[in-house]
Structures are given as structure tokens and as C-alpha cells.
């Protein structure tokens, strides 16, 4: 693909990514050393990159050592795999947000593991340079999740949503709250959008977490998507 005509836009996307990560402590883990070097050169303008590696096990050490808040990773790594790395990060440090770049070589089971582990963002490598990464980072920054439409379709093709058991049925209002949370809206924005009080939103969210046995709102969104209780967020 000829990226020449996209160069101007890509510079804007890079600048936007830097702005979105300005307050983050970022660890980057990529299987391609060339991609890793370019990422370091383009994104580390304000010292927000605290670690960079091609190794999943080193990435875990760097996240712990530097108290990272955001992991950018590719699914293919020199040692380990991106989906397993995301799973371990979410198990050890649920508050660390994760953005995984998925290649066309990724197997459906790996995609499933990443989604069900609570991966906050999934971008398709083939669509890099088209604004997907800044879109994903913007969504993550507002507390939502980002999953490329084609990846969502692939996941649902191999893992169609089961009928939710009666114990996890959500009311219509709870579905609306969870749908807006999936789209990246914070509680105040949800309250405005649904014309309800902030305390009511918080109450609904607590009920949702309890019904879905979720550890946090991101996990609740993933559970809701997996069970077909809410629609996949529009990834543009």
C-alpha cells in the first residue's frame, strides 16, 4: 500500500498520540525491533515512555518497576505473545490500560484470550496509519474500550454471544448505562445523556458490576459484550 498521500495525516496522528499519552507512563512491547525503534522515536517526546522491549517477560518487569499506566503491545513478540502479556497484566494490575495491535497472523483463540482478559483496545495492524491508534487512545483515556470492527466481527464469528443466564439479566436502563460506558463515557456524561442524576448512574454501575461479577467497569463492558447484553462500541 502506498502511504505517501497519508504522510501529512500520519504526522497529525502521531502528534495526537503524543498529546493523549502526555500524562501516562507507557511501556511498549513489540516483536519487530524496527517498529519498536520507530515508536520510541515518534512517541517519546515528553518522556512518557518508561520502558521498551520485544520480550513479554521483560515487559512485565518494566511495568512493575516503573509503575506503568499504559501498555502498547503487538500480538507477535520475540518471546511470549501479546495476548498472554495482556492477560497477565490485567490479572496483576487491573488498572493498567492495554492496547494490543493485532496482525492478520493472529489466531482466533488469541483474540478471544485478549478480549476476555479485559484488553482495553484492539487495533488491526492492516489499518495502522488510518487514525485507529489515536482513536483507540482517546477512547481509553475516557474510560471506554476500542475494538476494531473487523476484529469484533471475527470474534463474534468464532464465538457467537451465548444467551445470558437469568442471573445476569440487565434492566433496560442498566443496558443503556453499560452501552455508554462501552463507548467511553464517564459517569457525568452518562448522567447528562440519560437525563438522570450522577448518583443514579453510580448506583446502576454498582448493580451492573455485581450482576456481571465484574472487577471494574472495563471488565463489565467485556462481560456485557461477550454475553450480547450490549452492542460493540462504534470504532469508526
Topology:
Blueprint: H1 7-20, E1 26-29, H2 33-43, E2 49-53, H3 56-66, E3 70-74, H4 82-92, E4 97-102, H5 108-117, E5 121-124, H6 132-141, E6 146-147, H7 149-158, H8 172-182, H9 187-194, H10 198-212, H11 217-226
Parallel strand pairs: 1-2, 1-3, 3-4, 4-5, 5-6
Helix pairs in contact: 1-6, 3-4, 4-5, 8-10, 8-11, 9-10, 10-11
Give your account of this protein's structure:
With 236 residues, this protein is α/β, with parallel strands linked by helices. The protein folds into 2 domains: 4-158, Response regulator (Rossmann fold, 3-Layer(aba) Sandwich); 166-226, Winged helix-like DNA-binding domain superfamily/Winged helix DNA-binding domain (Arc Repressor Mutant, subunit A, Orthogonal Bundle), CATH 1.10.10. Helices cover 51% and strands 11% of the residues. The chain has helices spanning 7-20, 33-43, 56-66, 82-92, 108-117, 132-141, 149-158, 172-182, 187-194, 198-212, 217-226; strands at residues 26-29, 49-53, 70-74, 97-102, 121-124, 146-147. A 6-stranded parallel β-sheet has the order 2-1-3-4-5-6, sandwiched between helices. α4 (82-92) links the parallel β3 and β4 (97-102). The model has no long low-confidence stretch (mean pLDDT 85).
Amino acid at each position: 500500500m502506498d502511504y505517501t498521500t497519508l504522510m501529512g495525516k500520519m504526522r497529525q496522528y502521531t502528534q495526537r498520540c503524543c498529546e493523549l499519552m502526555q500524562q501516562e507512563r507507557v511501556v511498549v512491547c513489540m516483536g519487530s525491533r524496527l517498529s519498536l525503534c520507530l515508536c520510541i522515536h515518534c512517541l517519546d517526546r515528553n518522556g512518557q515512555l518508561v520502558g521498551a522491549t520485544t520480550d513479554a517477560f521483560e515487559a512485565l518487569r518494566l511495568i512493575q518497576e516503573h509503575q506503568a499506566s499504559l501498555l502498547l503491545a503487538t500480538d507477535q513478540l520475540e518471546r511470549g505473545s501479546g495476548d498472554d502479556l495482556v492477560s497477565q497484566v490485567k490479572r496483576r494490575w487491573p488498572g493498567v490500560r492495554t492496547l494490543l495491535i493485532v496482525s492478520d497472523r493472529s489466531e482466533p483463540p488469541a483474540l478471544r484470550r485478549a478480549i476476555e482478559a479485559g484488553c482495553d483496545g484492539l487495533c488491526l495492524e492492516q489499518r495502522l496509519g488510518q487514525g485507529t491508534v489515536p482513536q483507540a487512545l482517546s477512547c481509553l483515556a475516557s474510560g471506554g474500550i476500542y475494538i476494531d470492527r473487523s476484529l469484533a466481527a471475527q470474534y463474534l464469528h468464532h464465538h457467537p454471544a451465548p444467551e445470558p443466564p437469568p442471573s445476569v439479566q440487565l434492566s433496560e436502563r442498566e443496558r443503556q448505562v453499560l452501552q455508554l460506558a462501552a463507548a467511553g463515557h464517564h459517569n457525568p456524561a452518562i448522567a447528562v445523556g440519560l437525563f438522570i442524576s450522577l448518583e443514579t448512574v453510580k448506583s446502576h454501575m454498582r448493580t451492573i458490576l455485581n450482576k456481571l461479577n465484574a472487577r471494574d467497569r472495563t471488565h463489565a463492558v467485556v462481560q456485557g459484550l461477550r454475553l450480547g447484553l450490549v452492542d460493540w462500541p462504534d470504532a469508526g
